[in-house]
Write a structure and sequence with these properties.
- The protein is elongated and about 45 Å long.
- With about 90 residues, it is mainly alpha-helical.
- Helix content is about 75%, strand content about 0%.
């Protein structure tokens, strides 16, 4: 059985979802230690989002980006959790 390739719109939506997931964390990452070092990467991600429909991509590439996004989120989990915890503690103390 041969699988048909996914339409470009589906691949672009999957890629857009990965990029947007990372961009949604920008505020939290800015607060993290060394977060400033990633700011230029957010600029690049935003530029890619703006040109996404012009990018030719295949399913293998999208799968690799989805896996990389998953690993990135896993690595950030503890850092973001500690930021959220610190922010909530600060709110309680005020």
């Amino acid at each position: 059985m041969t699988c048909l390739p996914l339409p470009d719109s589906v691949l672009h939506n999957r890629l857009r979802n990965c990029l947007q997931t990372i961009l949604d964390l920008e505020a939290e990452i800015r607060l993290a230690p060394l977060g400033d070092a990633l700011l230029s990467e957010f600029v690049t991600l935003k530029e890619v989002m703006g040109r996404l429909n012009d990018i030719t991509i295949n399913e293998h590439d999208v799968e690799r980006i989805e896996e990389a996004t998953s690993r990135f989120l896993f690595e950030l989990k503890d850092a973001v959790a500690s930021i959220d915890f610190a922010a909530h503690c600060g709110e309680r103390l005020q």
